[in-house]
Amino acid sequence: MPQIEETQPKYLQIAHHIRDQILRGDLRPGDEVPSERQLAADWNVSRPTAARSLEALSHQGLVEKRQGSGTYVRGLQVNRRARELYGRARQTGKIYTAGEYAVITSAGWLDAPDYVAEALNLTTGTRAVHRRRVTSNESGPITLSTSWFAAVVGERAPKLLEPDRIQEGTLMYVEGMTGRQGSYAEDRMCARVATEEEAADLNLSAASAVLIVHHIVFDMQDRPLEFAEATYPPGRWAFEQGYPIT
Hints:
8 helices; Arc Repressor Mutant, subunit A; 2 domains; two-stranded antiparallel sheet; Chorismate lyase; 8 strands
């Protein structure tokens, strides 16, 4: 069980832990979350502190309390970002939750676009390995993403060139094949109008707004390991972050 840290209020640490479980898909809509009594015992905190953590989750719209029954995860339309996918893959060995699946629409060698070459510290025009995928659930497409890797990574991780799913997730596979461990990542986000190709892949109408995330993973030597561009459709809750105001 995670330990309490003194840098953040105890109730927020508990709430953020449960929030991360919900965003990863470990706790799904309709699942019951631990009770006040269970949280108090697991985290060694008082019942009022445990109750406040559940209240915080309720205020965020993540859970709902059912009279005489308990507290349950609400039905959410959530866009999971890379950090939630990594967390799930490392804990369960699977990157997607039940009902989610990805189709690899393109894989192999391509000349890296300038912004990809810059992110991976490659010479302009260098060939790189790409994997383009559309992730869907029962409601339809929910994410379009393309991962890029330098040639040296592609040579050591041949599955990247195949249009088949990698069950444990691309990054964990690359780590295992290259011995390079992901250390930290940076995300840059912006909104723009979808291209025709993006609109078609995500079943959007022309000129729909989309959220774009450029995601770079760095290894233990601060070298870029993966660059990914993800396109998220509108109308789904995207990212949430809590922070103190002092």
